[in-house]
Automatic annotation (TrEMBL):
Signal peptide: none annotated. This is Putative metalloprotease. Gene3D superfamilies: Metalloproteases ('zincins'), catalytic domain. Residues 36-220 form the Peptidase M48 domain. The lineage of its organism: Bacteria, Pseudomonadati, Pseudomonadota, Alphaproteobacteria, Rhodobacterales. Keywords: Hydrolase, Metal-binding, Metalloprotease, Protease, Zinc. One of its GO terms (biological process) is proteolysis involved in protein catabolic process. InterPro entries: Mito/Outer_Membr_Metalloprot (IPR051156), Peptidase_M48 (IPR001915).
Length: 228
C-alpha cells in the first residue's frame, strides 16, 4: 500500500486541481456574463440550431474585452464583449461570429472543454514531477525546463483540439447554408484583432494553430468532402 501512496497522492492532486479550476471558471463566468440577445446574431443562432435539428443555439456574452470565444466545461457557449464590439463596429460580420459559435459547439461536441481542465491539472503534475527530478541534476534550470516541456505538451494537445473543432464548425456552417467563407475570412482577421500578428512565441508553444494552417485545413476538408 505504501508503494502506491505517491500514485494515490498524484491522482488526488489532479482531481483537486480539476475541481478547483472548474469551480473558479464557473464562478467567473456566472458573475461576468449575460445571455446573448443581439438583433444581428439571433438569426444566425436560429439557423445553426436548425441545421442540427435543434432550437436556436443559446450563447452568452462574457464581459471582458479580449476578442475570443469560449466553451465552458458545462457546455455553455460564450463570446467576449470585445467580439461583440467588433460586430457593432462592423469589423466582423454576424456570419463570421456564427463560425466562432459553431467552433465552440465543436469543442462541446467533442468534450474538449472538460478534457482541457484535466489537461491543465496534468500539465501541473508533469511540471511538478519534472521539476523535482530535474532539479536534482540541473539546479536552477530544472524548473525552467520542466515548464517548457509541460507547456509544449499542453499546446500540442490544444492545437489538435482546435483543428477538430474547426472541422466540426465547417460541417455545421455548410449545413446551415453559410459555407466556410465566413470561417476563413475571420481567421484572416484574427491575428490582427487579437494582437498576435507580430508575436514571437515559438510555434510549438502556441495553444492555437496559425491562421494560415487552419484555413488550409478547412480548404482540404472541403476538397475531400466534395469528392465523397
Amino acid at each position: 500500500m505504501l508503494k502506491l501512496l505517491p500514485l494515490i497522492l498524484l491522482f488526488a492532486y489532479l482531481a483537486a486541481m480539476w475541481f478547483f479550476s472548474a469551480w473558479r471558471l464557473k464562478r467567473d463566468l456566472d458573475e461576468n456574463s449575460t445571455p446573448l440577445n443581439h438583433p444581428r446574431l439571433n438569426r444566425v443562432l436560429a439557423e445553426l440550431g436548425q441545421a442540427m435539428d435543434l432550437p436556436p443555439v443559446k450563447a452568452h456574452i462574457y464581459e471582458v474585452e479580449p476578442v475570443n470565444g469560449l466553451a465552458a466545461p458545462d457546455g455553455r457557449i460564450f463570446l467576449t464583449r470585445g467580439f461583440i464590439r467588433k460586430l457593432d463596429a462592423c469589423e466582423v460580420t454576424p456570419e463570421e461570429l456564427g463560425s466562432v459559435i459553431a467552433h465552440e459547439l465543436g469543442h462541446v461536441a467533442h468534450g474538449h472543454s472538460r478534457r482541457r481542465m484535466i489537461d491543465f491539472a496534468g500539465q501541473n503534475a508533469i511540471r511538478l514531477a519534472l521539476s523535482t527530478i530535474l532539479g536534482r541534476f540541473i539546479p536552477g534550470l530544472g524548473a525552467w525546463i520542466a515548464n517548457i516541456v509541460a507547456t509544449a505538451v499542453s499546446a500540442r494537445l490544444s492545437r489538435q483540439d482546435e483543428f477538430e473543432a474547426d472541422r466540426f464548425a465547417s460541417a455545421l456552417m455548410i449545413k446551415a447554408g453559410y459555407g466556410t467563407e465566413p470561417q476563413k475570412s475571420l481567421f484572416r482577421k484574427l491575428d490582427r484583432m487579437s494582437g498576435t500578428a507580430r508575436g514571437t512565441t515559438p510555434a510549438w508553444l502556441l495553444s492555437h494553430p496559425p491562421a494560415r494552417k487552419r484555413i488550409a485545413a478547412i480548404q482540404n476538408h472541403e476538397t475531400r468532402w466534395s469528392r465523397e
